[in-house]
Design a protein that fits this description.
The complex is a heterodimer of chains A (164) and B (202). Chain A has 164 residues and is mainly α. Chain A has 7 helices and no strands. In chain A, helix 3 crosses helix 6, helix 5 packs antiparallel against helix 6 and helix 5 packs across helix 7. The relative contact order of chain A is 0.12. Chain B is α/β, with parallel strands linked by helices. Chain B has 2 domains: 98 residues, Double Stranded RNA Binding Domain, CATH 3.30.160; 80 residues, Arc Repressor Mutant, subunit A (Orthogonal Bundle), CATH 1.10.10. Helices cover 40% and strands 12% of the residues of chain B. A 4-stranded mixed β-sheet of chain B has the order 3-2-1-4, sandwiched between helices. A two-stranded parallel sheet of chain B has the order 5-6. In chain B, a hairpin with a 2-residue loop joins strand 2 and strand 3. In chain B, helix 5 packs across helix 7 and helix 6 crosses helix 7. Classes of the chains: A mainly alpha (164), B alpha/beta (202).
Chain lengths: 164, 202
Amino acid sequence: MTPPPFARFMEEHRAPVYRFLLAAVGPHEADDCFQETFLAALRAYPRVRDSNLRAWVFTIATRKVIDHERARARRPVPIPRLPERSAPESPDGDPELWLAVRSLPPRQRAAVLQRYVLDLPYAEIARALGCSEEAARASAYEGRRKLREALSHDGLPRVMGGAR
Amino acid sequence: MTGELDPIRRVDVERASRRVVERVVERARRERLDDVLVARVDSPVGTLLVAATRRGVVRVAFPEEPEDAVLQELADDLSPRVLADPRGMDPIRRQLEEYFEGRRRRFETRIDWSLGPSGFSRKVLEQTARIPYGTVSTYGEMARRAGSPRAARAAGNALHDNPVPIVVPCHRVVPAGGGVGKYGGSEWRKQWLLRLEGWLQT
C-alpha cells in the first residue's frame, strides 16, 4: 500500500513536530531539526511500510534532537545552560519554563514533551525513544519531576533579586 | 491537566511551521526528491490542480475531482513524494494565466504521458496537441491522423480521458455533425474555452 502523498503527510504532522522541536531545541535550532526530520522522512518515504506515520515521524524527530544534543556536547566551547542572553530565545517571552525543559536530558525531554504537551500514547513514545513502554513512562515521570523541581527552585532567586 | 507545560501547548506554531515547510520543499527540489510537484492555479473555469514531474506536466484536474483523490492517485501511480510547491510550478502557472487572459496561444512545456493511455489513444492525444489555437478538428479526423480512420468513437473516448486538458487542447475536437460535443471537464468549459479562443462567437 502506498503511503498518502507526502504533502498531506507533512501538512498533518508539521505543527506537532514543530512544537516538539521548538521546545526541545529552541527557536534557533528548531528550523534546522525540522528540515532534517522531514527531508530524512522524504528520502525514506517510498519505502515506508509503517502504518503509524505519526510514530514514524516522531521517531525521526527524536533522533534529530538526540543527535543535536550530542553535537552540542562535542563543541569545544560549551554554550552556557541558562545565560542571560538566552532570554529572547523563548517563544512566548517567558524563558523560565522553556529553558528548564531544555535543561532536561534529551530522552526525558522528548518523553515529557511527547506525553504532556502532545498527548502521544506511551506506546508511540516508546517507539520514538526505542525503548519499552515502561521505560518511556519512567522517562516522562522523571523528566516532569525534575522540571517541577527546576521551576520551583528558579523562583527563589528571582524573588530575592527582584529582577525580571 | 498539564499545568506547568501549558505555555508550550499554547504557543502559536502555525506560521513558523508553514514557513519551514517551504524550506523543506526548496531543499527537496535541490536534492531532486521532488518526484511530483503540485500547485493550484486559479482560472475563469475554476481552480485547477496542476501536477508536474521532472519530465513535464503530468496532470491537470478540474475542481470536480476531489483534491485528495487526485493527490492519492499521483502518489499511487507515480511516487508518494508528492510536494505542494507553488513556486516550482511558477512557469506553467504563468503560462496558464496568460492563456486565460488571451495573451498566450501555445504552451511551452513538456508533457509527461505517464498517466495517459498508450497505443491508439496516446496517438490521438499527441495529434490533438498539434491543433492550432482558435481552430478545431473532428473526432474522425483525429482518428485518421492516429492511423485508424474509422475509430472516431474510440478517439472521442481517448480525448475524454485526457490527463492534461487545456495543455493538450482536447476542447479543440468537435463532432463533424455540428455542436461542440462532449468534454471531460463539463461542456460549459469546452464552450468557454472555444469562445476564449475566438472559434465560438458569443
